[in-house]
Specification:
By secondary structure, the chain is an all-alpha fold. It has one domain. Helix 1 packs across helix 4. The protein starts with 12 loop residues before the first helix and ends in an 11-residue tail after the last helix.
Length: about 90
């Protein structure tokens, strides 16, 4: 199927699968499906459909979910930075 004739990305199985994994992680980070649905401004039933990989969310929802992941990445980086460098291991520690 030529690119011009392919279905929108939101309807492609791999897109839905990738989005589902991201949304599942976001559910953990935001305290559950209900909280994430409120944050994303979507109905919990729609979020359930997307998190189960039955279809992909609209691009705007996907982008907001990615922001949740990126914010968590930044938070963890700051925590690691605050800890300081890891202690050096002696050669006999391996």
């Amino acid at each position: 199927m030529p690119i011009a004739e392919s279905p929108p990305m939101e309807r492609q199985p791999r897109w839905a699968e990738m989005c589902a994994r991201i949304l599942q992680q976001c559910e953990s980070l935001r305290g559950g499906r209900e909280n994430l649905a409120v944050f994303l401004g979507v109905e919990p039933q729609d979020l359930a459909t997307w998190a189960e990989g039955k279809s992909g969310p609209p691009r705007a929802v996907f982008e907001k979910a990615v922001e949740v992941i990126l914010a968590e990445h930044d938070r963890r980086a700051e925590v690691e930075k605050a800890k300081g460098p890891a202690p050096r291991r002696r050669r006999t520690d391996h």
